[in-house]
Write a structure and sequence with these properties.
5-stranded parallel sheet, 2 domains, alpha/beta, FAD/NAD(P)-binding domain, 20 strands
Amino acid sequence: MDVVVIGGGAAGLNGALVLGRARREVLVVDAGEPRNAPAAHMQGFLSRDGMPPADLLAEGRRELAGYGVEVATGRVSSVTRDDDGFVVTFGERTVRARRLLVTTGLTDELPDVPGVRERWGRDVIHCPYCHGWEVRDQPIGVLASGPGSVHQASLFRQWTSDLVFFENSINLTDDERKLFAARGIQVVPGEVERLVVSGDVLTGVRLRSGEVVARSTVAVGPRMVANSALLTSLGLEPTPHPMGEFVESDPSGLSSVPGVWLAGNVTDLAASVIMAAAGGAKAGMAINFDLLQEDNASVSA
């Protein structure tokens, strides 16, 4: 096997597409747990704006089949190096690959507030570029949950004039309060107890004081943690980041371990679907070039 791609989201499928078109022998192993599974639609992807994420993946798999790329459903349990490259085990199957492309994504660690996880991807959102247009001019609340919450509130103000910032456990600075006042962002002090849902619709945010602030959408800032457990056996450790942690790679996606490339949210916490797909394509080209150099060296020896 030339390349095993671990992860079958936009990054992994696009990387596999490039490699399949380069006539490489490629296997994609996918556990079937995409980060954006709770979302009904994805936005900001040229020609695919508003498309359900699952439809994009299904179309990607169909395209890969035309190039002889195999997509297997399963969870990779181990990855090790050997003299010929890498050994990948999933289920009852073990395969060897000359190169790896790891696109395992990240996990969103959500605030521990009742209702947030249940509404995640519906009326609890995080990215204004992904969801802002769909909730424009609606009453939006930003639930302070981390160092990026102030910036998040400033961004969402572009999509609505009815914006409330729930301080929760964060203490705003005087400058931040002045900024919010100037931009018309209302600050609500006190700790949030839970989200209020009526008839499967978010209607408000309840404070521990008992006060309920009516909102139809709530934005939160999850801690984003790269799904990197498999990479530790290869010597790759996650790097801390103010918003979570990721695994470093160079502009082509090459990690610090020769033969291992990364793409998508495992190495870029801010990557949207289209950015992850582009990262996969770039990594696929780099992997093919690396294999070509090895092929050339073997026939020239």
